[in-house]
Amino acid sequence: MKKQTTTVITYGTFDLFHIGHLKLLKRAKMLGDRLIVGISTDSFNLKKNKKTVIPYHERAEIIKHLRFVDQVIPESCWEQKHRDIIQHNVDIFVMGHDWEGKFDSLSTLCNVKYLPRTKGISTTKIKSYLKKHKEPQSSSINVVKTY
C-alpha cells in the first residue's frame, strides 16, 4: 500500500523569530504535506554553548501557532534526529544550507535536503545589532536593509 502523505522534519533553535525562520519553515512545508519542527531545548542549547534570549516554551509556542506547522517536538540531543525520523515516519529531513553535509548520514532513512538561508538576516546578526545599540533610535529597529 502506498503512503498517502509526505512528512517533512526540520530542527532549529528559532530564537528571536525572524523572517529568515519564517521563509525556511514555509519552504520546508512546500516539500510535503506535514511539517514537524524540532525546537532545541534550553538545556540542549547550553550543551551546544548557545545562549537563547527566548526560553524554549515560548519559542515552541510561537512555532506551534504558525498555520503551516503541523507538530512541534523538543530537540534535546543530536542523536534524536535518527529516532524522530523513524518514529514519525519522515520522508524528508530539511536544514538550512549552512548545515550542508552535516546530516548526510540520515539519507539512509529519508531524503535529506539543505535549503538556502534568507540573505541578510540571522539571529546572530540581530543579537550583534542589539548588543551594539542598547537603546533603539526609533520605534522600529532596522536590522537588515533587504531580505
Written overview of the protein:
With 147 residues, the chain is α/β, with parallel strands linked by helices. It has one domain: HUPs (Rossmann fold), CATH 3.40.50. The chain has five helices and five strands. It has helices spanning 19-30, 42-47, 56-64, 80-87, 123-132; strands spanning 7-12, 34-40, 71-75, 92-96, 111-115. It has a five-stranded parallel sheet with strand order 3-2-1-4-5, sandwiched between helices. The chain is globular, with a radius of gyration of 16 Å. The model has no long low-confidence stretch (mean pLDDT 87).
What is the N-to-C order of secondary-structure elements (H for helix, E for strand)? EHEHHEHEEH
- Which blocks of ≥5 consecutive residues have pLDDT under 50? none
Q: What is the CATH class name?
A: Alpha Beta
Terminal Cα span: 43 Å
User: Structural class of the secondary structure composition?
Assistant: alpha/beta
Identify the overall geometry.
globular
User: Strand order, biggest sheet?
Assistant: 3-2-1-4-5
In which range does the helix fraction lie?
A: 25-40%
Beta-strand segment tally: 5
The assembly state of the depicted protein chains is single chain
Write down the overall mean pLDDT.
87
Question: What is the radius of gyration?
Answer: 16 Å
Number of helices: 5
**Overall number of structural domains:** 1
Beta-strand proportion: 15-25%
CATH homologous superfamily designation = HUPs
